[in-house]
Amino acid sequence: MRYFDWRGWLRRGVRLWRTSLLTRTVSITLLLSTLAVGIIGSYVAISVGNNLFDSRRDQLLAQATRATGTVQNAFNLTIGQGSTINIEDATSTAYTDVLQSNASATGTTQIAILRTPGQSGPRVPVDVATNGNATKNLVSSSLRKTIAASSKSTSAKSTVYWQSVAIPHSGGSGSDPGIVIGSSVNLPKSGRYELYLVYNLADSQQTLTFVQSTLLLGGLALILLIGAVTLVVVRLVVGPIRLAAETAQRLAAGELEQRIPERGDDVIATLARSFNGMADSLQKQIVRLATLSQVQQRFVSDVSHELRTPLTTIRLAGDVLYDQRDAFPPATARTAELLRTQVQRFEILLADLLEMSRYDAGAVEVETEPTNLVRLVEDAVESVASLAETKGSELRVVAPGGYFEAEVEARRIRRILQNLIGNAIDHGEGKPILVYIDSDENAVALAVRDYGIGMTPAAMERVFDRFWRADPSRQRTTGGTGLGLAISLEDAALHGGWLEVWSAPGEGSCFRLTLPRQVGGVLRGSPLELPPDEDVQDD
Fold first, then answer.
1. pTM for this prediction
2. Three-state SS string across 277-319, please?
3. Fold of the domain built from segment(s) 369-538
């Protein structure tokens, strides 16, 4: 048995609403049009219904008033002074003949004449109704009380009262709207009676139903017409916008020759010409910058490769001089030491330049394998431990526990850690340096925290720029090239991770590296705070 997939339809509807301007515009127009037509149609229908009922009611009240006067006059003439007719027979004949003739004249559907309660003497004549109890049941007790109270006042005896009722069909299914009009009449020598005339308003209801049906059909037709017109107009407007969006996407994908067709002289044509002019300008700038970037990348790559051969020769000669420095005068020996140090730094600079040129050319590939990051951190810390001792900084590894294995390229992650720890040693002012590692089931985070001089917000914005230093005059212990953090940022991005920084003047700095545990994983958060919670340090 297949069930209706309402969740799938709901998701598709939401996606269509979010992605289609045409759908949103037409839907909103139809909704507002339906609301407006519904309000106006309801007002018209209610107004027509009220006016139709009021006019029909006033007409029937006038007829009932005339019928009441006619009946009262007939009774007065039939039961006159000195009449020898039996009072019961005369009264019955009089009101029966007059009421039947009045019913056919006024269109009354049912008639009832009931003796007003609370009178003394015989009930002559007895209560009469067209349909017996069915007609009596249409007369409510509240209407009878109102008419009985009015009969006691001589000024209100000619007043008629009405009440809306539902007249059941003879078959017992359904009913018609109706109105009961009552008044008080006086039968000489018998007492006060109540005259009720029941009118069926089915003809008025049919007229109102026809008007409402016409308004409903007209409203639906109007809404559909508005929707069709809106669809046509929006398509005329959205079509060029969609074409411009598709052209912009192709331009962003590298198809720099794409343009929007220019037709006419309207606003859309002006937009097309402006867009095409912008595309031409962007194409020229992109081509020029791409050419310049290629020249720069080739220059850096060529220079780096060309310098390797003479640098190797210089390094070999420097090593020979360095090994024999004890036989040289002090000044010459110091020169040999400086030569060896600067040659090593030059080799690192060339290696970093080649690495950056590979990143710029998009020729870097990552080779991942499951790696225990705790051991990797311990190896990185051990490799710079002697350097930290010369600066008086204590290196501590804080690993609360968790999933410490991740699919990474160990060489690149170790290089990131060495760069971060080396910077912390340079700027840590001899204070402790903490290396945090923590993880969850989706991500692994490494953080290097120092308590040195820190950085200003302006310096934090440029800390990952190439060859940038927060304080160029400050002595560097690690002899870096100014490319370490830039390469670290590229290495982190190559793994799909984040490399973030926190710092405050006088409070130190903290760099946090967050990596997905699996290749292709998407990061939604980091297991470590930035900076890490001090409670973790205490643990």
1. 0.48
2. HHHHHHHHHHHHHHHHHHHHHHHHHHHHHHHHHHHHHHHHHHH
3. Heat Shock Protein 90 (3.30.565)
